[in-house]
Amino acid sequence: MLNDQIVWTAMVTPMNDTGTVNYTNFEYLLRMQESAGNGVVILGSTGESLNLTPAERRQIVAFTTKLDLNIPIMVGVGGCELSSTLDWLNYLETQAVDAYLMVTPIYAKPGSEGQFHWFSTLLEAVSRPCMLYNVPSRSGTSLDHMAVRRLSEHPNFWAIKEASGSTQEFAKYTNSADRAPVFSGDDAMMWEFGALGCAGVVSVASNIWPR
Question: What total number of domains does the chain contain?
């Protein structure tokens, strides 16, 4: 099912004036994506999950899964501290989600060996497909090509979201990822990435333009 999904929407998390999550608006936005047939990514960078408490993040996941959407749900997995990230994954494994979006550790800027250890540990901790996320403008460093090549045989490594803004970098990931599909993480680069074998898009624009 996941490989048939061309568009994933990186969902915003709507807030009330008081700083709490507006669940009425959130369901409305999710239903729009369901109507369009798009997969949804909750608590990714667009959802600014690092600005939410662990309890708020758990509540958002529980709320989303209880809607019984007929589209796949991917959940963002980010941070820079391994044990708390594993705790988050342990919770997500109890929920009805379909995939995980795992970003390069933020701020720490690990090298190839550090990234391999980080991702291989996370991949071993889960039972669902994982999309690795290259977004150097946010994480401070690129997803390492050698680490990707070493991880490519792991059964839980499913895909890559590539948001470097570079066609040259995108082409390198399609080579190093072996059989894993590579998705554009940049709406504006879809035409250029499409010519390089892009499997689809993890889109921000589809929040307001689902179809």
Answer: 1
Q: Is residue 1 part of a domain?
A: no
How far apart (Å, rounded) are the C-alpha atoms in residues 34 and 205?
15
> Residue 155: inside a domain, yes or no?
yes
Query: According to DSSP H, which parts of the chain are helical?
Result: 23-36, 54-66, 82-92, 112-124, 136-139, 145-151, 167-176, 190-194
Q: What is the pLDDT of residue 80?
A: 87
Considering the candidates 23, 28, 91, 133, report the single residue annotated as catalytic.
Answer: 133
2 inside domain: no
Where b means 16+ CB within 10 Å and e means fewer, 24-43 reads eebbebbebbbeeebbbbbb
Active site residue 109: no
Supply the range of the domain harboring residue 143: 7-207
CATH of the domain at 44: 3.20.20.70
Q: How far apart are CA 16 and CA 174, in angstroms?
A: 41
Check residue 182 and give its pLDDT.
96
Provide block-wise average pLDDT over 10 residues at a time, the chain (211 residues): 89 96 98 98 90 95 98 94 96 98 93 97 98 92 95 96 94 88 95 93 96 91
What local confidence, expressed as pLDDT, does residue 154 receive?
A: 96
Instruction: Select which of 100, 161, 172, 173 is catalytic.
Output: 161
Is 133 in the active site? yes
